[in-house]
Amino acid sequence: MVTVRASLAPADRFVTRHIGPSPDETRGMLATLGYDSLDAFIDAVIPEDIRLRRPLALPPGRTEREVLQALRGLAAQNQLYRSYIGMGYHHSFTPQVIQRTQLPDDGRLPHRPADRQRLPAR
Fold it and tell me: What is the rounded CA–CA span in Å between residue 63 and residue 54?
């Protein structure tokens, strides 16, 4: 009989889903593909001209608390500005050439009732 506690337990664990395959699983996959080691597989699959032979220059890892603190610091640098989108052209001059060529002219597209938009029958 399944207990309530057992039925509420997560079906899969984050760690097992995100850590990657075990050494035994890796050996099994490499054997299926016909390679003795992961290095031999990478040498066969990754072209030499795109391989990076030196270690990446990455900063040391940080804790979740440190990352959140850094993100809060970045967010504090944000500045709020007033958005003028949708405010129209009030108190501005728009040259006639722009009005003629860039701004839509509703007079060019007359409204047609829905029944007149259908193609004529042949």
Answer: 26
